[in-house]
Every structure is written in C-alpha cells, then in structure tokens.
Amino acid sequence: MPSSPCGDGCLPTAAERAGLARKAARCAMLAAMLLSLPVLLAGGVLPGSWRRSLQRGYSRAALRGLGMRLRVRDERGLDLDPGERGVLVVAGHVSWADVLVLCALGPADFVARADLLDWPLLGTLARRMRIIPIDRARLSELPGAVDEAAERLRAGGRVVAFPEGTTWCGRAYGSFRPALFQSAVAAGALVQPVGIRYCTPDGRLDTTACFVGDQTLAASLRRTVGLRGLDVEVLLAPLEEPGADRRELARRCERAAREILGADLTVQDILDSMEERQTTAA
Questions:
Q1: Rounded to the nearest 10 degrees, how much is the dihedral formed by the CA atoms of 30, 26, 200, 278?
Q2: Domain carrying residue 211
Q3: How confident is residue 117, by pLDDT bands cut at 50, 70 and 90?
Q4: Has residue 34 been placed in a domain?
Q5: Is residue 2 domain-resident?
Q6: Position 3 in a domain
Q7: How confident is the model at residue 43 (pLDDT cuts 50, 70, 90)?
Q8: What 3-state DSSP class applies to 71?
Q9: Residues 157, 190: contact at Cβ < 8 Å?
Q10: Which of 41-55, 158-172, 187-201 has the lowest mean pLDDT?
Q11: Which H or E run contains 55?
Q12: What are the transmembrane regions (predicted)?
C-alpha cells in the first residue's frame, strides 16, 4: 500500500490570513458553485465541446473561489504532436485541489480511489467524469484499472493518474510507481508529465493546501479559503514516448515532473519535524 509520512507537522505554523470580506466573498462564490453543480452534472446532454468548456470553466472558477491563482509554464514544444494518439497525464499528488488544477487545463478521465464513488454529491460528479476506480486495498484489481486506462488511451483519450498512489506535502514526495504506466506502454500512448507546486504570491513554497494525514476535507477547505492568497504553478513538461519498459518510463516522467518543485525535504526530515512538534506540544 502506498503510504506517506506527511501529516499535521508538514503544515505551516504561520500564514498571511485573508480579511473577513475576502473570506466571505470566497465562501459566497463556492456556495454559488455548489448550487450550480446540477448544471455541471447535466453536462452529459450537451455537445462534447460545450461540455469540455463547461468543466474547464467550472474548475477555474472553483480555484478562484478558493483564492488560488493558476500559472502555467508550457514546455511541451513541438517535437511530439499527439495527433490522434491518447495521452497519459501523470503528476505528483499534493491535494484534492490537484484535480481542479488539471481539469482547468483540459478535459480528461481520472484514475481515482474507488471509494470516491460512494461520497455524497462528489460520487455523482465522479461518475459523470467517468473516473477509472482503483482500490489500493485490493491490488488484484489493479490490472483491470490498467486495462481500462489502456482502452481509453487507444481510443485517443486523455487519462490522468497520480502514480505516487497517495498525497504528499509538496516539500517532499514519493516515487512514481510504474504500474499505471503500463497502460501507456500497452496503448502506444504518449505521456505528459506535469509538475504542480503550491506557493505564496511571492514564490515561496506553501504546504497549506496539502491534504495529508488525518485531515478532513472540510478542515482543509477552511484552511485554504482563509489564506490571503495562494498561487498554483504548473509545469507542462515535454511529452514522453512510452517505450517498452514501464519502470524506465516512470523514472523519466518523475524526473521531468519534479523540475518545478524544488523539493528540499527528505522523508526523515518530515519525521523529525513531526516528532519535534509533538514534543513541543507535550
């Protein structure tokens, strides 16, 4: 089972807080978006281009409602043109907001935890987004998820996966596990490594948005909305050919996606920090 040592000890001890007026405006925007969610859920009856534009616009509006500003650095170049080929998008996993970030860039099918389908409201949205469920407690079902992803890639689709298998704080990170890269190898699909970095408006890495440990979604939302501001930097690295070795492909994509992060902590650093905080609290 993928695991991460990240937890409350990874959260910043101090941050610039938003004023009451700004927090109220953000909460009002998020409430309005929640009320309009049935429009997004009904998007299946719209033409494909309209539905994709609706999903992208909704995701961008949600990021603004959370006080996040999206900044994209596109380094894909012109060396590889996907054409009709499918594209597997892979990124490190920091927060539930990663999904909004990637949806804001373009439509895709997500590989996501299977129990998401059982969540109220979000489960309905997940089914509408045609997620590929994966139950990491039942690894015998992993080949089925890989085969489903490969089938959608063969059809020319875009599939998003978080190959770390769990969330990290953004200052440290896990390895890209190779299993889901097999779908690109089997389908002959290109792979798009993406780096995601949450930072303060002046460019300092900020772990406020990370969703780790025993946090609840509600607590994470409150903390994020309460910030004065948060930038989301996204790196679209050059596309990668799949090759024949999923492990080698995973290593290539991990190197490309990490370029933006400037990660400066090891796993041991995180454990030491958590132990220090627990000692101080005691």
A1: -80
A2: 8-281
A3: low
A4: yes
A5: no
A6: no
A7: low
A8: strand
A9: no
A10: 41-55
A11: helix 48-65
A12: 27-50
